[in-house]
């Protein structure tokens, strides 16, 4: 990183060379009491009124006490400008980072550093209702793409100086601001240090969103399940922080990521804590049942229809046999073909513009589904199984990616080895889930190792009095040892 020159001419030439062909770069040279200064900003990133009232007018109208460059610089910093955000830079890379963040930079002839002041005025999206984590009774706000706004939302909800936010710059070329958030005396400092080390050691040149960073935070990217959670809801993130987790905010991303993320986290929603315990428990059990259905139903149907027809009632067995006899494919081939066709239509509906995306997915499902059955390519029972599976998978959307892969695996196991293969796959899946230990916390906790105290918010939702007394933190879960990771 090249240091700032003492000569104002050298600094001006260097900056103008670096920002050549940048039409939004503005530089003005001024002479104050015989001392040459330059002020640099990026048009569209700053508030012009703040630039005039807080920087330009005070500097031009102030009666400086000394003509010494260093004293002149300090007087600007301490007595003249009244910006709340202010910092000194000694190299050009830091100056360019601040300019791109909505700051103004002031250079003084004879001083080998620059003064940067925050006067942000760029356009940003207003807080809106969450689009992917909708709820009925909870808060209706979500994160935006602006890091400072997201930090402010957290501070508004957690009104305590114990909420810490450490900010870093990630990337060699595109320097992206990243904030590590945690609650002091609640989060384990070993967990905080581990997250910071992973972020600082991430070999990224261009960090544009949270997904790339989440992969470096994941302890085992080869697993079917992720150990890094994400949310667009401030209330959800605050509850995770109060459990001793560590969150990461990325400038430019409307999502926050947090660690460690456990298997049972996928089955709880904000509405669970706004509904009465008995109804929240019913919904949570429904989610666990939907997970089993969405992952195992196609494979189980293929296994039973191919190898274990005697397990079916006579009327259903005849229906399955008649449907299979009228198609040229085996049940395993049918299941894989229909699932792939479903994923194609889902992806098309997702990527197309909203005005036609839903129409394409609905019409495609109705027309193609009816056509393949009438043409005898796929049996009607198989379409019913795939439809039920697809709907069930959306009940637990955080696990959708994992379920999509597992579904195909279980179909192949069921079509090749029957129920025995499906059960073997279930055992292998259980071993995989229980063997994961992200950040020293068992991924399957509090189910395995079992914790009676923590399970009050797992399969069922206990009353608030019991939940408040429980006060469970991730580092205190049974089997947790953050130092082992």
TrEMBL record:
InterPro entries: Spore_Ger, UPF0353/GerABKA_families
Any one GO BP annotation for this protein: spore germination
Any single GO CC term annotated in Swiss-Prot or TrEMBL for this entry: membrane
Keywords: Membrane, Transmembrane, Transmembrane helix
Pfam families tied to this protein: GerA
Bilayer-spanning residue ranges: 95-116, 285-304, 379-397, 409-434
Highest taxon listed in the record's lineage: Bacteria
Assigned protein family: Belongs to the GerABKA family.
Protein name, as recorded: Spore germination protein
Organism: Candidatus Eubacterium faecipullorum
């Amino acid at each position: 990183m090249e240091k700032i020159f003492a000569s104002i001419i050298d600094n001006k030439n260097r900056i103008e060379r670096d920002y050549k062909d940048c039409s939004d770069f503005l530089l003005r040279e001024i002479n104050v009491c015989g001392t040459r200064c330059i002020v640099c900003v990026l048009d569209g990133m700053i508030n012009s009124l703040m630039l005039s009232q807080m920087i330009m007018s005070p500097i031009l109208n102030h009666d400086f006490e000394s003509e010494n460059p260093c004293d002149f610089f300090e007087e600007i910093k301490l007595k003249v400008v009244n910006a709340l955000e202010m910092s000194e830079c000694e190299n050009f890379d830091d100056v360019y980072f601040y300019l791109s963040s909505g700051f103004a930079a002031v250079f003084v002839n004879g001083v080998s550093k620059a003064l940067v002041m925050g006067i942000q005025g760029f356009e940003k999206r207003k807080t809106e209702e969450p689009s992917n984590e909708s709820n009925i009774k909870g808060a209706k706000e979500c994160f935006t793409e602006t890091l400072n706004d997201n930090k402010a939302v957290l501070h508004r909800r957690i009104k305590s100086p114990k909420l810490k936010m450490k900010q870093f710059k990630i990337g060699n070329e595109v320097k992206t601001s990243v904030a590590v958030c945690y609650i002091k005396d609640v989060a384990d400092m070993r967990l905080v240090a581990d997250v910071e080390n992973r972020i600082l050691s991430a070999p990224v040149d261009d960090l544009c969103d949270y997904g790339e960073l989440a992969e470096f935070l994941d302890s085992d990217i080869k697993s079917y399940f992720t150990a890094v959670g994400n949310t667009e809801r401030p209330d959800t993130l605050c509850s995770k922080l109060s459990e001793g987790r560590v969150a990461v905010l990325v400038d430019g991303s409307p999502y926050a990521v947090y660690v460690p993320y456990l298997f049972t986290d996928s089955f709880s929603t904000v509405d669970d804590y706004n509904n009465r315990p008995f109804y929240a428990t019913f919904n949570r059990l429904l989610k666990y049942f939907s997970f089993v259905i969405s992952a195992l139903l196609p494979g189980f149907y293929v296994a039973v229809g191919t190898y274990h027809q005697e397990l079916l009632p006579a009327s259903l067995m005849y229906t399955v046999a008649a449907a299979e006899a009228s198609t040229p494919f085996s049940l395993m081939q049918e299941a894989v073909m229909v699932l792939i066709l479903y994923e194609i239509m889902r992806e098309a509906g997702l990527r197309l513009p909203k005005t036609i995306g839903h129409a394409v997915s609905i019409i495609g499902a109705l027309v193609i589904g009816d056509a393949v059955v009438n043409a005898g390519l796929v049996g009607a029972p198989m379409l019913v199984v795939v439809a039920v599976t697809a709907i069930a998978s959306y009940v637990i959307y955080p696990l959708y990616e994992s379920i999509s892969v597992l579904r195909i695996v279980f179909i192949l196991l069921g079509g090749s080895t029957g129920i025995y293969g499906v059960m073997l796959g279930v055992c292998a899946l259980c071993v995989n889930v229980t063997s994961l230990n992200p950040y020293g916390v068992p991924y399957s906790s509090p189910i395995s190792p079992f914790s009676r105290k923590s399970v009050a918010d797992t399969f069922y939702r206990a009353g608030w009095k019991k939940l408040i007394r429980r006060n469970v933190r991730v580092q205190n879960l049974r089997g947790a040892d953050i130092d082992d990771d």
